[in-house]
Amino acid sequence: MDIIKDFVLITKQTSKKSINSLISNWPIIFTGIIYTTINIAMISFVLTVFRGILSIFAGIILALVSASLISNYLYLLFNIINYNKITFQDFKDGFKYYLRKVYMIFFFAWIGGYLLDAIRGLMGFNPYILNLIITFSILVLLNALPETLYLKVLDPMESIMYSVDFIKENWLNWLIPNLILYTALYLVTGRIVTNTFATHMNIGFGFNAIAWIRYLIGQGIFSFIMIYRGHLYKLLSTSTRRKRMFMNKF
C-alpha cells in the first residue's frame, strides 16, 4: 500500500512541476527545429570538405557535432529543472557545457560495439538476438543516463554506474511513468523513441501546415516527457520512500 501511495504522490508532484516548467519554458519545444537545421548543415559541410584521405576525420567531427547538440539540450534541461528558466545565453553556453561527458559516453559506446562485434564473431551467436538483448538492456539499465549526466557531478564512467544503480533502486517509479508517457507519444505521433539521448522528434511528417502542427504537438509532448524525467529523477535521487511519506505529512 505504501508503494502505491508513494507512486501517486510522486506522480502528482512531478506532473505539477513539469506542467509549470513547460509553460514557463515553452521555447524548448522549438529546439528540435534548430538542432535538425544545424545537424543537416554540418553533415553537408563535413561531407563536402572532408573527402578522400580527410574522410577519416568526418566521423569524429560529426560525433562532436552530435555530442554538442546533446550537451546543449541537457544544459537547457538542467536550467529548467533547477531554476525553471532558460535564456539565450544558456543556449549559447550549452553546446560545450556537457560536451566532454557526452563525447566520452559515445567513445565508451564505440568501444563496447567493437568488443561485441568481436564476441559475436567468436561465438557465432545470432547477431539479431544478441543485438535485441543488448538494445533492450541499454534502454532499461541506462535509461536515466541523460539525467545523471546533467543532474549529478560525476565523471562519465561513474555516471554509467550510478544510472544502473538508480534504475535498480527506483525501477517502479521510473520505468512505469516513462512507459506511459512514451506510449502516449507513440499514439499521437506514431514514432517510437529508442535513442537514450534523443533531443527532439524527427521532422518526418511532411511540410504542409497539418504536418507541422502534428510535429509541434509531438515535440511539445516530447519536451514535457524530458522535463518530467528531470523532475522525477531529481526527486527520486534525493529522497527515499520513507522520507517522501514523512514530508508529505507536513
Describe this protein with a few key phrases.
mainly alpha; 78% helix
Low-pLDDT windows of residues: none
- Integer-rounded radius of gyration: 19 Å
Largest sheet: none
The helix-and-strand class reads mainly alpha
Notes on the structure:
This protein is mainly alpha-helical and 250 residues long. It has one domain (13-243). The chain is built from ten helices and no strands.
Q: How is this structure best summarized?
A:
The chain has ten helices and no strands.
Topology:
Elements: H1 2-24, H2 31-49, H3 58-83, H4 88-97, H5 99-123, H6 127-141, H7 145-151, H8 156-189, H9 209-237, H10 241-247
Helix pairs in contact: 1-9, 2-3, 3-4, 3-5, 3-7, 3-9, 8-9
